[in-house]
Design goal:
Elements (H helix, E strand, L loop, with lengths): L21 H9 L11 E5 L6 E2 L2 E2 L1 H10 L10 E4 L7 H12 L8 E2 L15 E5 L4 H5 L23 E4 H7 L27 E4 L6 H13 L18 E4 L4 E2 L7 E2 L1 H16 L7 E3 L4 H17 L8 E6 L2 H16 L4 E3 L2 E3 L5 E7 L40 E3 L2 H12 L5
GO biological process, one term: glycerophospholipid biosynthetic process
Organism: Camelus dromedarius (Dromedary)
Keywords: Hydrolase, Signal
Length: 428
């Protein structure tokens, strides 16, 4: 559903919100006297690209938002975590970048990358995995430093993911040069001797879009079709295939360009289509992390709870506000998690259930990224009542109601003002 920025959609939690004069009502509420503030009982899940930054440039509204969120002493007034579907950087590097842009100290454990919840997949940490993506792949995937634990219910968020044995696509290509044949310039000039001393691959770890898609697609397929022994050939493709873990299913994302760019979801779509065409079967995932997966929101809720505990805020964090620019990942994920909370499910890690303190997750869509409200010259609805194309991942399915934001606002500053008004907090 397309509405102008600043309009309000039906709120997922609570009664419908009038569309007529939301800005006037918000403005009036902002000048009313707030109730006396105690410890916060709410927190923010903020997307980064398209909400706080575009490429390497900060969106001006983000500075204004953090003037509201940060006290004169440089402390956050409420719990905040940054939830991004990017993953081609280290957690502490992203925290350092955000600190410079926003003007206050962002800690690494406030940043959730798309692959961060993979720390929970400890059953795969001992496997030898082919890892695909770009940036500091090995640093992100490797095991915890000596003395740290990767077997907690929710591991401490600092540090890498806990996978102890990873092989990059470049390392696999170097071991088997004849596998990569698309680029004529990179083909081997002579036929190398076959390798029989290369340990078998036991799974595939997809952390983000690679640079050379044709190479990664070919070698991932080789691993899956050979049951982890790409130097050999099997009479038929094994099924079920080796475990595949993937993070970030965004089809598109917003950078400096006027139109969205391909995301890792586009790469996964290519891999799934190739696997289905070659084998006649569906590629299956052992786990998908990043928005809109419930696991990612549970992980974020846990970090908000820990952050509040460190600050000495005893009141439980009941209301979560997820601010994003992508209806399919940010809005869909927040509404999916809200539905999960409303159904009263209790999450479980390592077979130990723990009730979540959060009671609601409110989706707030901003107009500074992927989402663009219809303008005066925008085309009307498709003829014949056709639905708009579904940009989500196939494993999450199409549920149009989950793509309707609780609120649509112009930018993150307006989102913060809205939340403070709803929670009765002063705009200091």
């Amino acid at each position: 559903m397309d509405l102008p920025c600043g309009a309000m959609l039906r709120a997922t939690p609570g009664p419908p919100v009038c569309l007529s004069t939301p800005r006037l009502r918000l403005r009036a509420a902002l000048f009313s006297s707030p109730r006396v503030q105690g410890p916060p009982t709410f927190g923010f899940l903020l997307d980064i690209d398209g909400v706080l930054v575009r490429g390497h440039s900060i969106i001006p509204a983000a500075r204004e938002a953090f003037r509201r969120l940060v006290s004169p002493q440089g402390q956050l007034r409420v719990p905040v975590v940054f939830v991004t579907n990017a993953g081609n950087m280290l957690q502490h590097s992203r925290a350092r970048e955000l600190s410079a842009l926003l003007g206050f100290q962002v800690e690494p454990d406030q940043v959730i990358l798309a692959h961060s919840p993979m720390k929970l997949f400890s059953q795969h940490h001992e496997r030898r995995l082919l890892v695909s993506g770009q940036g500091p792949l090995v640093e992100n995937a490797r095991a915890y430093p000596s003395g740290a634990s990767c077997c907690e219910v929710l591991p401490r968020p600092r540090g890498p993911l806990g996978f102890k044995h990873v092989v990059t696509v470049d390392e696999l290509r170097a071991a088997f040069p004849v596998l990569d044949m698309v680029d004529l310039e990179r083909r081997p000039k002579t036929t190398p001797l076959p390798r029989n001393d290369f340990p078998a691959i036991e799974g595939v770890l997809l952390l983000g879009e690679p640079v050379r898609w044709e190479t990664s697609l070919q070698l991932i397929m080789d691993v899956l079709l050979s049951d982890g022994n790409p130097g050999t050939s099997l009479a038929s493709a094994p099924y079920p295939h080796l475990p595949v873990l993937a993070s970030n299913v965004d089809l598109l994302w917003m950078a400096e360009a006027k139109m969205p760019r391909f995301g890792h979801g586009t790469f996964l779509l290519c891999l799934e289509a190739i696997y289905r065409k070659v084998t006649g079967r569906e590629l299956r995932y052992e786990g998908l992390t990043g928005k809109p997966s419930i696991l990612t929101y549970r992980y974020a809720e846990d970090l908000l709870r820990r952050q509040a505990a460190r600050r000495g805020w005893a009141a439980p964090i009941r209301n979560l506000y997820a601010v994003g620019d992508n209806p399919m990942s940010d809005v869909y994920g927040a509404n999916l998690f809200h539905r999960y909370l409303q159904r009263g499910r209790e999450g479980a890690e390592e077979g130990k259930p723990r009730p979540l303190a959060a009671q609601s997750c409110v989706s707030i869509l901003v107009c500074t990224g992927v989402y663009r409200p219809p303008g005066p010259g925008s085309p009307g609805p498709a003829q014949g009542g056709e639905e708009p194309p579904f940009h989500g991942h196939r494993d999450f399915g199409l549920s149009p109601g989950l793509m309707e934001a609780s609120h649509v606002v112009s930018d993150v500053h307006e989102a913060v003002r809205l939340v403070f008004q709803k929670e009765g907090w002063a705009l200091e």
